[in-house]
Amino acid sequence: MLQQEVCFDTETTGLDANNTELVGLSFACKQGEAWYVPCPADKDATREILSVLAPVFARQDIRWVGQNLKYDMLVLRWYGYQLAGEVFDTMVAHYVIEPEGKRSMDLLSAQYLGYEPVPITELIGKKGKGQGTMRDVEVEKVREYAGEDADITLQLKYVFLPKLSEKEVEKVFYEVDNPLVKVLADMEYEGVAIDVGFLNEYSKELDREAKLAENKVFQAAGVRFNLASPRQLGEVLFEKLKLDPNAKKTKTGQYATGEDVLLKLAHNNPIVEDILAFRELTKLKSTYVDTLPQLINPKSGRVHTSYAQAVAVTGRLASNNPNLQNIPVRTDRGKEIRKAFIPRDSNHVLLSADYSQIELRIVAAISGDPNMCEAFRQGKDIHTATAARVYGVPEEEVTKEQRYKAKSVNFGIIYGQGAFGLADNLGISRSEAKAIIDNYRKEFAGITSYMDDTIAFAREKGYVQTLMGRKRWLRDINSSNFTVRGFAERNAINSPIQGSAADMIKMAMIRIHREMRRCGMKSRMIMQVHDELVFDVVADEKDAMRSLVVDNMAAALPLPNEVPVLAEAGFGLNWLEAH
């Protein structure tokens, strides 16, 4: 009998799907039954086994069920096979049902099936140097373990299916997160080329600059000490130099020397700027510049980030090894790191496309504020248009400073920033900050109404949702504790905005991926970072790719109130140049 649905799991020698070996595959088609196919260490022999299964993998009428299926798809891909049919990822299903918390298969089994599976540590030992791999375990034990995994995952699918309907999150699951699994698997498989020569040179440059900053600190302090030690730094700043008589201490008894503390002291003594420079230089060097070359995959010669799809409660993607979302963009030194990301060869260029002010467009669209919607419809510079209304002057008379302050309010208000926060942010008095916010709320009354209505909705329903119906549950929205409740209220305001932006770029990725396949493009989508997508583009596909990407990004999730969505794109021989 031909099966319409097969649960599938792989056993491997490691956790990096792009650099591991297949030990075996398990399959389950009905609850309580499973099959296990062991694979030998010899890769050719394993490929022979997989070739027998190839007709099954190639069938488009099979739905493949799995827990974190992207991992298994990547493992198969390195052996030359792909799953042609639809997928159903139980980890992703649980994520849209319950966005907070952990979701390993063992935890989900205990929670939803009342059954605790055999932990992997019983087979390969505890984490650490002595831990073995599944290759070391006798086949009979692996067979039991792997079969159980496939069976439990299939059972979880039957538990989650009705819950998707009960929680009314089917739309976001079937149209956004579940189809994205295959897109991310393809992106992770492609990876991105890295310019190691540039990084080696940049590392030396950062080292030179860090030493110069360090020496300037020692000269100003009149003493040499370990600048990387917060304890020693605190003692120098607050006991020797007495920069702040009211300096706060942490729970461990040492002075607080975080960036926020130092920035407030920057006007007191030039030593602070050199300390901050030293920190930035050493962090860039150790976290990115020296680390990226170590992450190059020996098989592909490229870096393959891993996208975590079921972590951020807002719906945003996270990435690890390297964390692309955290690559600095605010400083020139940080931006330089993007030069290290390059096309795969001389016949390719990088294309970077990102949304223009997408979160503010979403604010305008879902609040329906007439003034902000109209500014976007007319294609105005939103921060200038905002400043003109807040300060009551014609747009052509708005000063740079006024625009900067309006920009701060535009972004701050959606994160629940009040007068205190704005004053701190802009270095202005609290009374000026309050006047700016009061004017803003008056001129953009629709946004104020949105904020009030959203909090009221959350209090009544216990959740807020995005335009696609992604839910964020807010258990503390009615808390009697003012601080706890305030945090939940800020999340209530921000989550539908941030979440809708996350949904939009995911839907754009799905559309672009599908369209690229339909058109037989040789170019590839290789990175997603916040509101930006990056592509490795074959030189003779440049024009076609630019319009394909920009058009599909703009059309991915049409916004209410006719607020237009704009995406902009550029090409370059490295990521910085393309951006």
Briefly summarize what is shown.
This protein is an alpha+beta fold.
Characterise this structure.
The chain has 579 residues and is of the alpha+beta class. It has 4 domains: 5-190, Ribonuclease H-like superfamily/Ribonuclease H (Nucleotidyltransferase, domain 5), CATH 3.30.420; 194-296, Taq DNA Polymerase, Chain T, domain 4 (Up-down Bundle); 318-357 and 502-578, Alpha-Beta Plaits, CATH 3.30.70; 359-498, Orthogonal Bundle (DNA polymerase, domain 1). 51% of the residues lie in helices and 12% in strands. It has helices spanning 43-57, 69-77, 90-97, 105-113, 121-124, 139-166, 170-190, 196-221, 230-240, 259-265, 271-289, 332-335, 358-367, 370-377, 382-391, 400-413, 419-426, 430-443, 445-461, 482-518, 542-555, 575-578, and strands at residues 5-12, 22-28, 35-38, 63-66, 87-89, 193-194, 306-308, 318-320, 341-342, 348-355, 463-465, 471-473, 524-529, 532-538, 567-572. The strands form 5 sheets. Strands 3-2-1-4-5 form a 5-stranded mixed sheet. A 4-stranded antiparallel sheet has the order 13-14-10-15. Helix 2 (69-77) packs parallel to helix 7 and helix 15 (382-391) packs across helix 18 (430-443). The chain starts with a strand and ends with a helix.
